[in-house]
Write a structure and sequence with these properties.
Blueprint (H helix, E strand, L loop, with lengths): L14 H8 L5 H4 L3 E5 L3 H13 L2 E5 L17 E2 L11 H11 L6 H21 L24 E2 L5 H18 L3 E4 L2 E9 L2 E9 L5 E5 L2 E4 L20 H8 L4 E2 L4 E7 L22 E5 L16 E2 L1 H5 L9 H13 L11 E4 L1 H7 L1 H19 L8 E10 L2 E2 L12 E3 L17 H23 L10 H20 L3 E2 H16 L5 H21 E2 L9 H25 L23 H4 L1 E6 L8 E6 L14
Parallel strand pairs: 1-2, 1-9, 2-5, 9-17, 18-19
Antiparallel strand pairs: 3-4, 6-7, 7-8, 10-16, 10-20, 11-15, 12-13, 12-14, 14-15, 20-21
InterPro entries: FAD-dep_OxRdtase_2_FAD-bd, FAD/NAD-bd_sf, Fum_R/Succ_DH_flav-like_C_sf, Fum_Rdtase/Succ_DH_flav-like_C, SdhA/FrdA/AprA, Succ_DH/Fum_Rdt_flav_su, Succ_DH/fumarate_Rdtase_cat_sf
Catalytic activity: a quinone + succinate = fumarate + a quinol
Cofactor: FAD
C-alpha cells in the first residue's frame, strides 16, 4: 500500500497557505450539525477542543484524569519554541525549520516541520492573549532562553512551569466552551476501542473508571490526543497514567503505527535511587544554559565534587562539541553521559550519574539571578535528593522521556483510518528520530489551535455525512470485544502482580532497546517479551471486580497492551539497520561514536500495519524527500 502524505505542491513556504485555501470549508451554519470526539485534554486535546467548539462544532472531550488540568502536559518545564527573534540574534522561521529537521536527524517530513515553524509565532500571540505569564525582560518584552540543538535564544518560558501555564490557558479556553454548552466533558474515562463504520472512525468505546461502566459514544470524527508511550519502559519521566492503549487500540483497528522505536532519552533527570521507584523526575533542559556538565577525569574517583580540582574535571560536552557545548541535543548529551559512566567516571553511589554544576554561574551572575531563573527547579531537586544545588552540583542521568514515534498521519493529521485524526505526541509527524527541547509544547498547540481546525473541516466537508448512532452493530461488536478482554483479565487469577510484569518488561526494554541497541540484544529481547506475555495471560493477578473503581484492572489492561507494543518497538528497531537520533544501533556509528545514518536505504518513515494477533505486522514505507535541507552527517562540533 502506498502511503499518501497529501503534501501540497509548490514552494515549501507557500504549502500551508495554499492548502488552507484549497481545503473545502464547512459553513458556519453547518458546523453545529457535526459532532467531534476529542480524547485527551493536554495541550493538543485542550486546544483542539476549545478551538473546534469556538468554531461551532459540538465536541465531546474525554480525559483519563479527574480533571482536564491534570493532563501530563502540566509537567513540562523548560519552555516553548517560536521564531519571533526577539533577542535579534539571527533566528527566523527558516532557521527554526532547519534546526528541527537537523535535530530530528533527517527523519521528519519537511512540509510538516516547516508548517510547525511557520505557526510557532501565532502560538505565542495566542498564549499572550490568554494571559499566559511568560517571563519578561527588563524592558517588558517577552524573555527568551537557549535550548539544546540551537545557537539562538528562541525558547519562551514561565520559570520552570511553562507546561502548567500553557495548559491552564488551553483549559480555560476549553472550559469557556463547556459553559457555553459546546463542549461536553467526560472525565475519568479510558478509551478502550475506536469504532469504525464503513471504514471511517465514527466513535469510541470507553470505560468509566469510577463505576466500571462501559460506554459508547458516536461522532462524525475522532481526534486522539493521548500522549506518548514512554511508560513501556516502566521507569520514565511520564505520569503513571500515561499509556499506549488508545493509540494501540487504533493500531489494531487499522491505523498504521510509525517509527515506534524512536524514543527520546532526556539527559537531565534525577538518577534512579532504588527498585522502589515508580517513576523518574525530569530536571528541565533549561538548566544546561547555566549548568556545566562534568565528570572526574580519573575513573573510580569517588571524592566529593568540592574536593576535585578544576584540573581533574572533564567538561566532556564542552570539550567534544565546542560550538554547542552543554547545549547539544538530548540524544547526543544522553549518549555521552552513558559513555562516561561506562568508562567508570560516573558519580554517586551507583556510578550512574554525572554532575550538573552551577558554581561558575552563581559566581558570575549571583545567586539571586539563578534563583529567579530556576528557583522552583532547585527546590524540587532539593526536596527529592536532600542536596542543595546552590552548594553542591546536581547529579543527573538520562531517562526515558518523550516518544517521537506514534500513529502515522498525513499532512492533514489524519491517520490511515479516515476520520481518525491524531495530534501532539500521539502522532509521529514533526520530530523525526529526536525531538529538540521546547518543541513538544509547540507541536501540541500548533496541531490543536492552528492545524486541525482547518483540516478536519476539509474532511467533514468532503465526506458524505452519515448519521451513526450507538445502536449500530459496530458499537455492539466493539463493546462485546472490550468486555470480553476485561473478563479475560479478571479470570486469570494468577499469583504475579501487574506491576511486577510491568517492571520486568521495563528492564528488558531499557537494557536492549534503550540508549544503545544491537541486533543480538534486540532478537533476545523479542523472545523474552513473548515469553513474558505468555506468562502474563497465565499468571497475572487482578483483584477486584469490573463493576467498580479498580486501578489494578486499569493497569492490567495498559500493561497487556505494552507487552504487545514492546514487541512492535523491537521489530521496528530491528528493521532499521542504521543509527539516527534516539535509535542508536551500536553497529552503525562513526569513528567518533556518533549516529551513522544510511540515507540510501532508510530515508523513510516506517509505518506498521496490524495483520492480526500472532501475525507479523506489515511494513509500509513513506519515502522522505529533502528538497530544502541538504542531507548531511549531523554535527554539533
Amino acid at each position: 500500500m502506498a502511503l499518501d502524505a497529501k503534501i501540497p505542491g509548490g514552494p515549501i513556504a507557500e504549502k500551508w497557505d495554499r492548502h488552507r485555501f484549497e481545503l473545502k470549508l464547512v459553513n458556519p451554519a453547518n458546523k453545529r450539525k457535526f459532532d467531534v470526539i476529542v480524547v485527551g485534554t493536554g495541550l493538543a486535546g485542550g486546544s483542539a477542543s476549545a478551538t473546534l467548539a469556538e468554531l461551532g462544532y459540538n465536541v465531546k472531550t474525554f480525559c483519563i484524569q479527574d480533571s482536564p488540568r491534570r493532563a501530563h502536559s502540566i509537567a513540562a518545564q523548560g519552555g516553548i519554541n517560536a521564531a519571533k527573534n526577539y533577542p535579534n540574534d539571527g533566528d527566523s522561521i527558516w532557521r527554526l525549520f532547519y534546526d528541527t529537521v537537523k535535530g530530528g536527524d533527517f527523519r521528519a517530513r519537511e512540509a510538516n516541520v516547516y508548517r510547525l515553524a511557520q505557526v510557532s509565532n501565532d502560538i505565542i500571540d495566542q498564549c499572550v492573549a490568554q494571559g499566559i505569564p511568560f517571563a519578561r525582560d527588563y524592558g517588558g518584552l517577552l524573555a527568551n532562553r537557549s535550548f539544546g540543538g540551537a545557537q539562538v535564544s528562541r525558547t519562551f518560558y514561565a520559570r520552570g512551569q511553562t507546561g502548567q501555564q500553557l495548559l491552564l490557558g488551553a483549559y480555560s479556553a476549553m472550559m469557556r466552551q463547556v459553559a457555553n454548552g459546546k463542549v461536553q466533558m467526560f472525565p475519568r474515562r479510558e478509551m478502550l476501542d475506536v469504532v469504525l463504520v464503513g471504514g471511517h472512525a465514527k466513535g469510541i468505546v470507553v470505560r468509566n473508571l469510577i463505576t466500571g461502566e462501559v460506554e459508547r459514544h458516536a461522532a462524525d470524527a475522532v481526534v486522539l490526543c493521548t500522549g506518548g508511550y514512554g511508560n513501556v519502559f516502566f521507569l520514565s519521566t511520564n505520569a503513571m497514567a500515561s499509556n499506549v492503549t488508545a493509540a494501540f487500540r487504533a493500531y489494531k483497528k487499522g491505523a498504521f503505527f510509525a517509527n515506534p522505536c524512536f524514543t527520546q532519552i532526556h539527559p537531565t533527570c534525577i538518577p534512579v535511587h532504588g527498585s522502589f521507584q515508580s517513576k523518574l523526575t525530569l530536571m528541565s533542559e533549561s538548566l544546561r544554559n547555566d549548568g556545566r556538565v562534568w565528570v572526574p577525569k580519573n575513573p573510580g574517583d569517588k571524592r566529593p565534587p568540592s574536593q576535585i580540582p578544576e584540573s581533574e574535571r572533564d567538561y566532556y560536552l564542552e570539550r567534544k562539541y565546542p560550538s554547542f557545548g552543554n547545549l547539544v541535543p538530548r540524544d547526543v548529551a544522553s549518549r555521552n553521559a552513558k559513555e562516561q559512566c561506562d568508562q567508570g567516571k560516573g558519580v554517586g553511589e551507583t556510578g550512574l550519574a554525572v554532575y550538573l554544576d552551577f558554581e561558575d554561574a552563581i559566581k558570575r551572575d549571583g545567586k539571586d539571578v539563578i534563583e529567579k531563573k530556576y528557583g522552583n527547579l532547585f527546590q524540587m531537586y532539593e526536596k527529592i535528593t536532600a542536596d542543595d544545588p546552590y552548594q553542591t552540583p546536581m547529579m543527573i542521568y538520562p531517562a526515558i522521556h518523550y516518544t517521537m514515534g506514534g500513529l502515522w498521519v498525513d499532512y492533514n493529521l489524519m491517520s490511515s483510518v479516515p476520520g481518525l485524526f491524531v495530534l501532539g505526541e500521539a502522532n509521529f509527524s514533526d520530530h523525526g528520530a529526536n525531538r529538540l527541547g521546547a518543541s513538544a509544547l509547540m507541536q501540541g498547540l500548533a496541531d490543536g489551535y492552528f492545524v486541525l481546525p482547518y483540516t478536519i473541516g476539509g474532511y467533514l466537508a468532503g465526506t458524505a455525512k452519515v448519521d451513526v448512532t450507538t445502536n449500530h452493530k459496530a458499537f455492539d461488536e466493539s463493546e462485546k470485544a472490550v468486555t470480553a478482554r476485561i473478563d479475560k483479565l479478571l479470570a486469570v487469577d494468577g499469583k504475579r502482580t501487574v506491576d511486577d510484569f510491568h517492571k520486568t518488561l521495563g528492564r528488558i526494554m531499557w537494557e536492549y532497546c534503550g540508549m544503545a541497541r544491537n541486533n543480538e540484544g534486540l532478537e533476545m529481547a523479542r523472545g523474552m517479551i513473548q515469553e513474558l506475555r505468555a506468562e502474563f495471560w497465565e499468571n497475572v493477578k487482578v483483584p477486584g471486580t469490573k463493576a467498580d473503581f479498580n486501578q489494578s484492572l486499569e493497569r492490567a489492561g495498559r500493561v497487556a497492551d505494552f507487552l504487545e507494543f514492546g514487541e512492535l518497538m523491537i521489530v521496528d528497531a530491528l528493521s532499521r539497520q542504521e543509527s539516527c537520533g534516539g535509535h542508536f544501533n551500536e553497529r552503525f556509528q562513526t569513528e567518533e561514536n556518533e549516529a551513522l545514518r544510511d540515507d540510501d536505504n532508510f530515508c523513510h518513515v516506517s509505518a506498521w500495519e496490524h495483520k492480526g494477533d500472532g501475525q507479523e505486522p506489515a511494513l509500509h514505507k513513506e519515502p522522505l524527500v529533502f528538497e530544502n535541507v541538504k542531507l548531511t552527517q549531523r554535527s554539533y562540533k
